[in-house]
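step: validate -> pass
step: tokenize input -> pass
step: predict -> running
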Amino acid sequence: MNNQKYIRNFSIIAHIDHGKSTLADRILEYTHTVSPREMFDQYLDDMELERERGITIKAHYVTILYKSKNDGRQYQFNLIDTPGHVDFTYEVSRSLAACEGALLVVDATQGVQAQTLANVYLAIDNNLELIPVINKIDLKSARPEEVSDELNKILGIEKSKIHRVSAKTGQGVEEVLESIIKEIPAPAGDENAPLQVLIFDSKYDPYRGVVSLIKVINGKISKGMKIKFMQENYVTEVEEIGIMAPGMILKNELSTGEVGYIVSGIKEVDKIIVGDTITSFVNPAKKSLHGYKKPKPMVYCGLYPIDGDDYENLREALKKLQLNDSSLIFTPEVSVALGSGFRMGFLGLLHLEIVKERLEREYGLRLLTTTPNVAYRITKTNGEVIFLKSPADYPEEEKILTIEEPYVAATIITPKEYIGEIMKLSNQKRGVYKDMQYISTERVELKYEFPLSEIIVDFFNLLKSISSGFASLDYEFLEYCRSELVKLDILVGGNKVDELAVIVHKDKAYFLGREFARKLKQEIPRHMFEIPVQASIGKRIIARETISAYRKDVTAKLYGGDVTRKNKLLDKQKKGKRKMKKIGKVEIPDEAFMSFYKIELEKK
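step: predict -> pass
step: emit ->
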């Protein structure tokens, strides 16, 4: 079916854990896209990691055929399921660019959350038609009236347009499907115009090469057609074309408005860029589509293979993963302590954790990450401006004129009884209070500005802990602001370990230095010689811990005789210890590189 007016491309957007994947399951079940025998929970979340954590990490697409109960016609729905966590906002924005509408799902027990608002603004930026859905109405704690009031007050949505469903039982799902036909417009575009195809996602198949998920904006694309990737200026041929329903179903062509996949036999992963435009080689389009604004990484860390021989395997794995996650940024770097690795850029800490776990599971690598940090802007005394992504590159203090750190504008939505504790936590994290508004009689929206470095590690966990899981957080980059920051160096056995260095605020430096040294004393095993662990700021040592040596009783074999024999053996041992201390190498275990995490979580 190629009739454009019977196609609907839509996404499901929601805060994390509001039932987005469950609603997608019910839609697949109700439309018989998946048979009851093959159906299982979180059907579109095909990654093992997604099931374990109960979150959507990747955007997933499926084509659904639905026969309307109103007009009896068959419609082609292209559903793109999206992640809900703040770290995967880029995934959401890419999916929305391939849609004309979105289902906005809100939990009837939790109401509007911070990420709900963020996703709504993304949808509005993409000029999408929104269909509001209140989910989980079957629960005893559901409060649909109150949540309807919130949607009306915050987003100006008419109460009569809000659907009430239970994705678990299937109640109200048919009404939602009918409103998709009625409310979401058919895709625009001209079937007779030169071909313009948007790549909104890609993945690597070891047998077929790169498989790209596409939306046809103008024209038609068919099997055997000679095509050109406009950004890379690369020419190839379409080997296979089809739709996901949900398995791969072969087709001869896709026309304007349709969503599907193509295989072009490309094995070089750097030839395909998400957001690129495909056009016909014979009759090319004059200009490419807008594509996507490249996201800026917010968190940086070093990623190293534990086995040095895995370096090339890690490079290849990162290239393949970048196809699937184009927000990932990496550059090679070499460390004295850890060997060859990569300096990685991530959108947040969860993004970092997920990427590391995927590399270990999907590519069989054993990896080590250094302490995460943000990018600082430093203006040197000679006027040069640099962005510092690794503490190891920190210039000498006398060469620094100013140092600035990234600040974010944060929105926290919480029940009113937790306001005091959340404000106290925000002050500890150097937050600047901006605004507070009641969005209902029970719930409050707080607005703060935070240094990004203060909230990337443990703020989200602490927020959930003090609010019994009810508070939610969303943030976006604001600007760089001047701060009194210093570099905290760690010396192990008198040698600086660059990978353990961190940049911290002056007021917290002494406390963190003391705790870091104490934590490393526990993590680094004892050797045959004494090891000093020191924290320093510039040339000043601010904390010291000593890891005592193993002591071998060299006098155990003596029986009687003069005391000088005993002293002679002890002196010989002392000389040996001194020599060992000079030439001995301290082995630092993997856990030590993440010790700074533990201070943040336990002490601050």
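step: describe -> The chain has 14 helices and 31 strands.
step: cleanup -> pass
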